[in-house]
Automatic annotation (TrEMBL):
Annotated family: Belongs to the UPF0126 family.
Location of the region described as Disordered in the Swiss-Prot/TrEMBL record: 226-261
Alphabetized InterPro entries for the sequence: Gly_transporter (IPR005115)
Subcellular compartments: Cell membrane
Keywords: Cell membrane, Membrane, Transmembrane, Transmembrane helix
Protein name (Swiss-Prot/TrEMBL): Integral membrane protein
Amino acid composition bias (Basic and acidic residues), ranges on this chain: 228-261
Membrane topology: Multi-pass membrane protein
GO cellular component: plasma membrane
Transmembrane spans: 13-30, 37-54, 124-144, 156-175, 187-209
Occurrences of domain Glycine transporter (ranges): 14-87, 99-173
C-alpha cells in the first residue's frame, strides 16, 4: 500500500513544488536576519523538510526522508540558494507565497497522516503526526532564528486547517481500507482535502478570520469564605513587606569594622 498523493509523477512534482516554496519561505526569513548563504540554505532545508524529519523519527522510519531522499533534499537546498539571490522579488510575492504555502500545508498534512497510518498508528496519532509534518519545519525555523513560532504568532487560521485536513485524511483512509471506496476515489478525496485546507487558509488571511481569544470577564465567582481568606493572606503579605527593612536604605559596613575586612 502506498500514499495516494505520492503515487503519480504529477503529485510528486506538486510535492517538490511545495518543498521548494517552503524552502523559499525559510530562506527569506534567514535573509531578513542577514545570515550568510550557508545559513540561508540550512534554514530553507529545515523549514521544508523539518516536519517530515520529526514524523519519521517518531515513526521509527529511519533514516528520515529529509536526509535520505535526494530529490527532496536537493529541492530544499536549491530553494535556499535561489532565495539568496532573488529575495527582493520573493518578498513582493505575498499572495503567491501565501497560496503555495497553503498548498504545502494541505499536502504535507495529508501525506504525513497517510504515512503514519501506513505504519499502523491509531487515528489520533496519525492526526498529530500529520499536523507535525505540516508545521514542524516552520516551528524549528522560528526557534533557530529566535522568533515566536508562526503557529503561535499568526492570528489567522493555521493550525486548524492542518488538523482538519489530517482528520479528514484518517476518515478517507479508513474508508479505503474498509473497501468502501476504491483507489481512484481515495486519491480524489485526498485532493479535495488539500483544496479545503488551501481555501481555509487563504480565506482566513483574506477576510481576517480568527479564532476567539479568552473570554473577557470582570467579575469573579468564588465562595465568599475563599475570597476573604485570599484577602487576609494578601494583607498579611503586604504588612510583612512593609515591616521588612529596605536593603537599599540599610547602612553598609564602615572602614575599620570587622565586616569590611
Amino acid at each position: 500500500m502506498e500514499i495516494a498523493l505520492q503515487s503519480t509523477p504529477f503529485f510528486q512534482a506538486v510535492e517538490y513544488l511545495a518543498i521548494f516554496s517552503c524552502g523559499m519561505a525559510g530562506g527569506l526569513t534567514a535573509v531578513r536576519k542577514r545570515y550568510d548563504v550557508s545559513s540561508i540554505i540550512i534554514i530553507a532545508w529545515i523549514t521544508a523538510l523539518g516536519g517530515g524529519i520529526i514524523r519519521d523519527v517518531l515513526l521509527g522510519a529511519l533514516p528520515p526522508v529529509g536526509i535520505s531522499d535526494m530529490g527532496s533534499v536537493l529541492t530544499a537546498f536549491a530553494a535556499g540558494a535561489v532565495t539568496a539571490v532573488v529575495h527582493p522579488e520573493v518578498d513582493k510575492l505575498k499572495w503567491s507565497m501565501i497560496t503555495i504555502d497553503a498548498l504545502a500545508l494541505g499536502l504535507f498534512a495529508v501525506n504525513g497522516t497517510s504515512k503514519a497510518l501506513l505504519y499502523n498508528t491509531s487515528g489520533m496519532t496519525a492526526v498529530f503526526l500529520g499536523t507535525f509534518t505540516a508545521m514542524g519545519g516552520g516551528v524549528i525555523r522560528d526557534m533557530l532564528v529566535n522568533e515566536v513560532p508562526m503557529v503561535v504568532r499568526d492570528p489567522h487560521l493555521y493550525v486548524v486547517p492542518a488538523v482538519l485536513g489530517s482528520i479528514f485524511t484518517v476518515w478517507v483512509w479508513r474508508a479505503h481500507t474498509g473497501r468502501l471506496i476504491g483507489d481512484n476515489t481515495e486519491m480524489l478525496l485526498d485532493v479535495v482535502i488539500v483544496l479545503v485546507v488551501i481555501v481555509l487558509r487563504i480565506c482566513s488571511v483574506k477576510f481576517n478570520i480568527r479564532l476567539p481569544g479568552a473570554v473577557q470577564r470582570h467579575r469573579v465567582h468564588l465562595p465568599a469564605t475563599l475570597l476573604r481568606g485570599e484577602r487576609a493572606q494578601t494583607d498579611t503579605d503586604g504588612q510583612r513587606r512593609k515591616a521588612a527593612p529596605d536593603s537599599k536604605d540599610a547602612p553598609g559596613p564602615r572602614r575599620g569594622d570587622p565586616a569590611s575586612s
